[in-house]
Design goal:
With 260 residues, this protein is mostly helical. Helices cover 86% and strands 0% of the residues. 40% of the residues are buried.
């Protein structure tokens, strides 16, 4: 019981610290302390720098899902419906979750390592000594940049996933292109795209908060930075997966299938 109680208290403490960082960041944003130059730099790093990862993730996810769907659909003579199936799956689940995990590994780790290095080398303390808020200088630009970049990256993954699906279904397996496109247009609605965009927006917030928090609390030199980076990736990945379940339940009520 003592171990369980300690784990619960530690979890609540951690959530309180991350929540405090969130509210502090929002407060600084509302006061207009955005630092546009730093935001632009972070958008290049997060958005443009993640292009190859996102394109490969989206394309090969769409391709393998199409192949698996085709193998099963042929048993029921329903292979012409693959276009709609893949599109909905990419929009609502596959693209948001997989891109979220890839960005966690690439961007979240970099955020935690960079800020953690600044923390253990006392650069964060130097910012405070100069009257500069570490949250405003280090967290807010990343916070804004990832909120803008994540939905766009997910849209890109969806696009390349659908293109790869078309190539596999039509060019490789000989599915009728007319029927593929017909089912794609009939079953895919703006609500499905909004579903993925909202998820991406929230995942971006989670990844940034967890990574920046781990960087700001890093200690014990290079070893501590390594531990903080590892914890950031693990915690953010779990947060994306757990949050995905609850978001799916809630958003399905808001954007039900076939009622756009």
């Amino acid at each position: 019981m003592r171990i369980l109680g300690r784990a619960i208290l530690d979890s609540l403490t951690y959530l309180g610290q991350v929540g405090g960082l969130l509210f502090e960041s929002i407060g600084l944003m509302l006061r207009g302390r955005w630092r546009p130059r730093l935001v632009a730099q972070q958008m290049v790093e997060i958005g443009f720098g993640s292009q190859i990862v996102v394109i490969v993730t989206g394309a090969f996810t769409g391709a393998v899902f199409t192949a698996q769907s085709y193998f099963q659909a042929t048993k029921l003579d329903m292979e012409t419906g693959i276009g709609g199936l893949v599109s909905i799956a990419m929009c609502r689940e596959l693209a948001p979750v997989l891109v979220g995990l890839m960005i966690t590994g690439r961007v979240g780790a970099a955020m935690a390592a960079e800020i953690g290095t600044m923390k253990v080398t006392e650069q964060v303390d130097a910012l405070r000594a100069m009257g500069i808020s570490p949250t405003g200088y280090l967290v807010v630009p990343r916070f804004i940049a990832i909120m803008i970049s994540m939905p766009l990256l997910i849209a890109e993954a969806i696009l390349f996933g659908i293109v790869a699906s078309w190539a596999i279904a039509v060019l490789l397996y000989g599915v009728s292109e007319a029927w593929f496109m017909h089912h794609l247009e009939v079953f895919t609605e703006l609500e499905d795209i909004a579903f993925g965009m909202i998820k991406g927006f929230i995942y971006g917030i989670l990844i940034c908060l967890v990574a920046c928090h781990q960087g700001l609390v890093a200690k014990d030199g290079a070893v501590g930075v390594g531990r903080a980076t590892t914890r950031a990736v693990v915690i953010a990945s779990l947060a994306v997966l757990i949050c995905n379940f609850f978001l799916t339940i809630v958003l399905t009520k808001v954007f039900p299938f076939g009622e756009g």
